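Exercise 7.
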Amino acid sequence: MLYPQRFSQFTREHTDTLAALLCGLLLFLGWFALHLGWLGLAFLLLPAAYVIGGYESAREGLTTLFKEKELDVDLLMIVAAIGAASLGLWRREYHLIIDGAILILIFAISGALEGYAMARTERSIRGLMSLTPDTARVLLQGKEEEIPISQLKVGDEIVVKPGELIPTDGIILSGYSTLNQAAITGESLPVEKTVGEEVFAGTLNGYGALQIKVHKPAQSSLIQRVIRLVEQAQTEAPPSQEFIDRFEKGYAKVIVVAGILLATLPPFLWGWDWETTIYRALTFLVVASPCALMAAIMPTLLSGIANGARQGILFKNGAQLEKIGQVRAIAFDKTGTLTTGQLQVFQIVSASEYTNNDVLKSAASVESSSEHPIGKAIVQAAGDLDWVAASQVQAIPGQGIVGIAQEQQIIVGNAIFVQQYVTNLPEELREIVQSWEQEGKTVVWVAKNPTPNPSPLFERGAEVMGVIAIADQVRVEAAASISRLKQLGVEQIVMLTGDNQETAHSVAKAVGIDRVYAQLLPEDKLNVIRRLQQQYQTVAMVGDGINDAPALAQASVGIAMGISGSDVALETADIVLMADRLEKIAVAIHLGRRSQLIVKQNIVVALSFIMLLLVGNFLGNINLPIGVIGHEGSTVLVTLSGLRLLK
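Solution. The predicted structure, written as tokens, is:
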């Protein structure tokens, strides 16, 4: 039963593509039958090609006609194709039936290509839903019981163990831990949380067990608001799409009305006979069909998409290739986008009698027993050095850690914590630390006491060895990428982050961004994007986290980091940088601008051909075969022109 199910699913997901392929196959076989003179077989195959390839266009066109009282290109194409076939049967010029089938095939292929861009929203929402567990561990009469999230009520008390996701927003009743909130708020460092503080659904608990009180309905949690914002932003039709829809309907109306007038008035106005009149009216419908106009766009965009893919730029649909070329403002997330998103040792300064390696080895000896991200960064930095793991290690949450290494007590932590073990903190180190903190870096003090006292009880007598600055590293290519975007004429470049002001401005200064929005929640980022769109119309957003998803969806062009990006960011974004290379944004903009130029050139060529063919038809200087050749020739010409973007 597995294979039939898979086949059924495949056909549902690729109905338009299968219809276009089958239409093409029947068209080829019908043409071959005509070539051999097998008219009976040809008249069996070609109508099937018309029905299979044109069914969806005919259905949509008729639905639009009867329900919305509007004409669109779908219906126009069907009328033109049927007209060509009817004329072919009437005059026994059966190759015209082939021409009509080709018109339908071209439109069927276009519809299939557009269909693949449709199911993104549902996948995005499913990805967001996976961020929160399905159940929560609730305390009922002193016992733990797992219940579905949907059954949680305000006032319920839930337990979250180390390493688990927070199931819903709440207030901590008891416990202490560090929470990784990067997916929700974009903060680069885990945040320490204790009694009385709020925690968010979808954030990852650290080393401590927490007892949390639900203070709002589960559906009102921050992550649920993110989900609703993504849904809302993705269902809003962009102005460009509305313009295209209006243009199609207007074009179809003009051509149909003109075709009807051309089929009825000439005998009365100019004395044409009815055979000539109908012949020219049907020729008019064929040459006026917008195949060349449609081909002016899709081959160009598909070529640009292929070009981008070779360079590690994944465009999810052709519309975004156009839009990226129109971008006037770009908003960058900080953590994981302009920075690597991973804590690293930024700098070490040692006291006069010690070396930097001495400081790093001592810190690593005690931090090797810690699960804290800062400790992991220190241990990673000391990977090539020769150090011994400390024993009798004791961590004091939110302050520091102590242990015994080589018969000496090692103290690592913040200034307040270390100051309780040492007589004084060197003034020269204080000045350095102050400048680091103003730049938004996290500072760790390292001290040692020759007395091997493992107790965290404060006994002065230790001496400061040095200080270590920890920071989220700015991507090496970030500054050059921002500079290149400014050279391309991007009018406004801003940075959006959930981090504090000091860290945000430090990173912005390093990469050359002047405008910074800090301490933002997901809806705040969304609102900033909306304000930018009011001023600059076409705005791009570059991000990687769940917290960026609403802004990515709202932006005219959402750009996600392919390696560091979350699943939801990747699904929500329109463009993915597969190798996390920021310099590819400038490449994408250049590619988008080239595609715009080629599309405009193609449209001019397509409209010029249509006008020439229409004038020639009206003057009686062309017959239907010449009209079809001109029509198909212009289509081929603009298609080949679009393929220039493959270079």
